[in-house]
Amino acid sequence: MRFKDVFSIIGPSMIGPSSSHTAGAVRIGRVARELLGELPEEAEVVFYGSFAATYGGHGTDVAVVAGLLRFGTDDERIPDALREAAEAGMKVTFRTGAGAAVHPNTLSAELRAGERSCRMTGCSIGGGNIEVVEANGFDLRFTADYPTLIVFHGDRPGVLADMTRLLSAANVNIGCMDVDRKGRLGEAATAIETDGGIPGGVLAEIRKLRSVTGLSYIDLNGGAAR
Amino acid sequence: MRFRTLNELAEIAVRDGKPIFRVMLEDQAAESGRTAEREWEKMKQYYGIMKEAVKKGIASEGGSRSGLTGGDAKRAFEYARQADSSLGGDAGAAMAYALAVSEVNASMGRIVATPTAGSCGVIPGVFVSSQERFGWTDDHMVCGLFCAGAIGYVIANNSFISGAEGGCQAEIGSAIGMAAGALTELKGGNPAQVVHAVGLALKNTLGLICDPVAGLVEIPCIVRNGFGAVNALAAADMALAGVRSVIPSDEVIRVMLEVGSAMPDMHRETAKGGLAQTPTGRKIAERLAGTSGELKEGDNDD
Predict the structure, then answer these.
(1) Across the interface, which of A50, A127, A195 has its CB nearest the CB of B116?
(2) pLDDT score recorded for residue B63
(3) Residue A14 and residue B117: Cβ atoms within 8 Å?
(4) S-S: B91 plus which of A198, B87, B169, B261, CB 3.0-4.6 Å?
């Protein structure tokens, strides 16, 4: 089901004018920020489809930057996000992308902070709900409605078992999981959506696993489904 | 959730002898892992935001960020109180309140997406005006929001709720269907009548395109919220009177999916067609692009 609960229909509480172009864009920005793991120094945002056609009028540019600053969808500072970003030392550029997008409201973001960088593509599917469709070149799909663990790792036998064993030992229930790899025994990535928050200790143990090369933890709602 | 269709939703409600809002509340608590009381409080808080937006919008003479719209809610409200208003004070208030919340949205104020920001006026318009008229408590209104949410959940998962995917029928149409069904239940209608109200309402917006002038959620979005609130009242009255949606409501939702999927790109929120590309619509877009530096891409793609 694309829409999981009653608050994906009634809600979110948000600053206007558009749930797809404003609230959804804030949330996509937030996810990109959590994927990077820190405040970006540079961000390049590319708009596709309807986003490309109308982003200025809807404040989609302002909204995605608000998300990069970790603002919530109803934060009254959203209209001033570009100024706030400049003050925080973030350099942002916007482009429009040509070609068919996977969804009419799609944006991708490339972020950099020091040595770290990440790339993400997300779609705003209506009512402030989003679907991430790509992370660092992997076809990973998740909604960020739940606490979500993104692990980059080698494609080796037993890696998933090692991760899920650690989650199971912490009594964390997995609601949805998506795995993609660039090639057999090459680089791989896994997105794991869980019902409750994942304790920091468990995240640290997963990070230490032999084949794991990177880990991001995205929890937009502080531990439970929105 | 235990239901995927309106038919399944009504069957569960009838079998368990519960109103639709209670089925939704229980399933929501099971899905989120939080208590029903906590989910109730969250919804009640949302209702408070809706009432605030009505109050703010109805008193405002001010305009939107672009300066294109504003003050119409107040005008409509004052006119509706006069003896010669065609709608009369009650339906007129529903219309004016819906306009009010949409105007607050256009001015980058705080609203609750129901189901989207573009259609955020319909449910508050219907709910707040009905509450005043019938003397309902806030808790009664929260029941209505859970009922509306159940209806929207079915529509969203079987069709769509965003203008970019399915045109305005997906946004305003869904909001009217949700408001109509919820009002039917709030007034004592049974689950079958609730479902008929949804189908009756949706049939009246099938095919409605999304064509915002200059790409902004203002023209024609705001007035469509006002019309939407009145349509919801009409659909609820029809259902409560015993009028049936002969084409079952779940089948009407399928038609919305069919029509929206066939809708050209230019009529799905891109501002490349419809009212947005009329001579006046183009002129407005050009003027805004010239003065504010916004809308760099909105009006020059075809």
Answers:
(1) A127
(2) 83
(3) yes
(4) B87
A8–B157 CB contact, under 8 Å: no
d(CA A85, CA A118) in angstroms, rounded, equals 18
Nearest CA in chain B to A49: B270
B211-268 pLDDT, tens digit each:
999 989 999 999 999 999 999 999 999 999 999 999 999 999 999 999 999 999 999 9
Tally the C-alpha atoms within 13 A of residue A51's C-alpha that lie toward its C-beta: 38
- Which one of B8, B145, B297, B301 makes the best mutation probe of the A interface by having the most chain A beta carbons within 10 Å? B297
Touching A: B residues 271-300, CB under 8 Å: 271-272, 288, 293-298
Mark out the alpha helices in chain A (DSSP H runs).
24-36, 49-58, 60-68, 81-87, 159-169, 200-208
Cβ-Cβ contacts under 8 Å, A76 against chain B: 110
Pair of tokens at residue A217 = 């933890």
On whether the pTM is more than 0.80, the answer is yes
One DSSP character per residue, B117-149 reads STTTTHHHHHHHHHHHHHT--HHHHHHHHHHHH
Closest among B155, B165, B81 to B114, alpha carbons compared: B155
pLDDT at residue A212, rounded to an integer: 97
Contact of A86 with A73, CB cutoff 8 Å: no
pLDDT at B108: 86
User: How close B49 comes to chain A (CA, Å)?
Assistant: 8
Contact with chain B for residue A56, Cβ under 8 A: yes
For chain A, residues with pLDDT lower than 70 are 100, 222-226
| Cα-based angle B120, A7, B193 (whole degrees, multiple of 5) | 75
In chain B, positions 8-37, which contact chain A (CB-CB < 8 Å)? Answer: 24, 28, 31-34
Q: What ipTM, to 2 d.p.? A: 0.93
The dihedrals phi and psi of B144, each to the nearest 5 degrees, come to -60, -35
In this complex, do A6 and B298 lie within 8 Å of one another by their Cβ atoms? no
Element (DSSP H or E) covering residue A46: strand A42-48
Give A188-213 pLDDT, tens digit per residue: 999 999 998 999 999 999 999 999 99
Contacts of B3 in chain A (CB under 8 A): none
Q: What is the pLDDT confidence band of residue B292, given thresholds at 50, 70 and 90?
A: very low
* pLDDT of B290: 63
Residues 182-241 of B with CB under 8 A from A: 212, 214-218
Tokens found for residue A125: 């599917």
Split at pLDDT 50, 70, 90, the class of B298 is: very low
